[in-house]
User: What shape does this take?
Amino acid sequence: MSAPTPNKAAATPEDILVLLQALCLPLDAEQVALAEAAGRVLREPVCAPEDQPPFDRSSVDGFAVRQDDRSFQFRIVGQIRAGDWRPRTLRPGEAMRIGTGAALPGDNLRVVMKEDARVETDRLTVLRQDSERNIRFRGEDARAGQVLVGAGVMLSPGALALLASVGCARPRVTRRPRVLHLATGNEIVAPDRIPERGQIRDSNSALVRAFLGQWGIIPEQRRVAEDAERIKSEIQNPQSQNENLDLLLVSGGASVGDHDFTRRRLEESGFTVLISKTTARPGKPLILAQRGNTLAFGLPGNPLAHFVCLNLYVRAALEGFAGQATRTAFTPGVLAADLPAGGNPRETFWPARWSLQDGSATLTPLRWSSSGDLTSLSAANALIRVRAGPEQLPCGKRVEFVPLERS
Ligand code: AMP
Ligand code: MG
Assistant: This one.
């Protein structure tokens, strides 16, 4: 991470994103098996080692015949199944049975579809002349040496399939960040427990785990209540894997209440606090701190604040650590319903569902009563950015949003 500029005033979302971009540089690259590479970012381009496909292949089940032979009667002289290699020069009037994906026996051929033919023993009658050759030609997908997947691209299932098809079995990707998540608060209990009066179930740990799972990251997670010594030792302990921790997430206690200790614990443990609040909501008391190569977020415990901070800021940090070439950006869209947020004193990120309609992103704001309201989160796939100011936001208004799917 590069040298930070300490900033203790309330930071705008832009300030935070710019700072994260400067702080979160790509982690080391490593070669891993394909099964380990999903969701990771490729660090060097993968090129086609040979033409793709490497030989002419039939795209249908049928009969290979000479391209110039338009007759209706043929004699079947052999069979080629997928996996066979049977070079042969076909003479006029000769056909070879061929399966989908099988190598053509020679050049200047076409394939008569099985559906267009009738067969009696070794006699083939063509019922319909097809203008298509029904061949996937050598090199028609890519030429030898062509870049198939560039550096900086996140490996989706489709990209992994492509890598497998060209024999790139151990791609060079960014190592996964080591992440520790501490859930603080005396009131939280595990989801499988029945809370006493005054207690609530810990939903943030599940949210954090699933969120990080999109990057293939499995965090260490602990519930530490408000036990100051425990929190300090978790953050400090150089014997654990924390020594090489890339990212520390602390849920709860980020604000200025009597029991909000996150900032103090981080400072006691040698972290420099770079940001302690933002101008936007939810997620106003957000802490960003740094110690050596470890970045720490103190996330406000409110579930919606958590959701927003993870999807905006932690995501930006992960994209930086991963060396991802394309970063999440604010995207233009149109409101599909009134947003009851006009006259907004503060910039707000509003949970919504977006879909594509008539070529533009259409946003349906979800019901949201408070930062503690989890009911809208299961449907949310976008956050609408509502700027501070007197502007009304009726249906049809153009707005900016962040899509939440990873791409
Ligand atoms: P805090 O940031 O600690 O002041 O917490 C703000 C709100 O979030 C409080 O209502 C907490 O009870 C709630 N909260 C804190 N941690 C969690 C958690 N892990 N799961 C669900 N809610 C939480
Ligand atoms: Mg708390």
User: Anything to note?
Assistant: Residues 2-7 have pLDDT under 50 and may be disordered.
